[in-house]
Write a structure and sequence with these properties.
Rossmann fold; 7-stranded mixed sheet; 212 residues; alpha/beta; single chain
Amino acid sequence: MILDKIDEYIRAHIDPEPELLKRIDRDAHVSTLNGNMTSGHLQGRLLKMITCMIRPRRIVEIGTFVGYSALCLAEGLEEGGELHTIEIDDELEDRIRDNFARSEYGERITLHIGGALELLPHFQDESFDLAFIDAGKEAYWDYYSATLPKIRKGGFILIDNTLWYCKVVEEVKNGDWATRGILEFNRKLTDDDRVEKVILPVRDGLTLVRKK
């Protein structure tokens, strides 16, 4: 398919995927049920680049999975910057901590195990410059609503999977709560005048939000 060729071409003409991240991605595909949840080469390099552009001091991430995206964000942080990442699946904790320990950027990351909606209220309001949301799609609007007060004015939120494998323009199947969650989020965000927003057609959609 032409899209596969375009993807291959892009990856061949951007910065290479760091070897550690390549191993983390491969391990996730081999030993977890949802290996495709890692950000991967293109999106990982984009996350690092966006972080370098925004130059945040503090980042919060909702949904760690195996730590791939957290390491990309941490790579873009300047010295002294910090990233707090929240993962609800405690069975992933040892794998995540091991991946962070293998990276020179791991010391910039603090891992929190638990539900984001329970943990986020404990962070000070407007204390983060950047957030990345990549968690359960059914609750995307809830995650966004809990995250926005924690972002400073002029700060940014990145939301992953907002085109959801093109399902947002297809008829929704019965029981497909993930797609319904994404559709609800996109609809509500469109009318949210507290922020500026744009959807980037990278992978299966990455929405960039700026808090006014």
